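Possible regression after last week's pipeline update?

I re-ran a chain I had predicted before the update to compare outputs. Posting the input and the new output here so someone can diff against the archived version. Not blocking, just want to make sure nothing changed silently.
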Amino acid sequence: MKKIALLVLAGAGLLAFAGTAQAKEIVGLKICGASGCNASTDREQLKGWMLGGSSDPEQSTSVPAEPFYTAELSFGDPEGNVIHQETAYWLPGSNVMRFRGQTQDPWWKLDPSGISMFQQISAGIDAFTPELSGVKVKGKSVSDPTSYLRLFGEFPYRTFPKGKLHLITIALTASKPNPWVSGTLRLRYEASRRLLIRPDGYVRLPAALGKLVMQRASLTASATSGSGGGSTALYAGLGVGGAAALGALAVARRKRMS
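New output (post-update):
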């Protein structure tokens, strides 16, 4: 397996496999969406996992909410025996992926061969639409929970400010896990500085968006026209339970939480 496989194994806590990584490869891939699953053990088809050969994949630190698939990858030996399995999320609109346990790590950009492989195996399957079953701001429920996925959009990264902060809690709950929230995730927000503390670091919200958060109002793009944070069509759709695909994402400098 190439360099990307070493990253996968390390990220999954499988350092014991690193010494023999060259003897392992992807021997199976199962992709699931809202309408079912497809699987492949075709070695020629699975060569798309090489992801650009020996070079490290391009990374993206923040990816706005969009439709997604789950991908179960089976790692095995040259004889095809499965040694280990890992489940990842694949976002077809942005063509990035990340393993479930890597919530604080960047997403990996798929190269053309990887994109082709995922598209072929997922053909005919509808993607999952991310949803939130509940959101509370300062302990009180908001009117449009799913629209709060917009808080995972692309906003300017900031360093942690000096001085006393007056942080409130934004608790997001997903009854069905998605790439951004599994169970309940608590974000912290400082209204006066519009500073949002997320798993990937510290970002500054646009004024209009920050105001709606404090009002516990819907965060659909139509309510905050021009305030940024990702695809207008997607967030408008998420606000009413629909879905749309996103384009390519810009990579911001990542500032991890301490």
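Follow-up from reviewer: compared with the archived run. Residues 1-23, 231-258 have pLDDT under 50 and may be disordered. Marking as no regression found.
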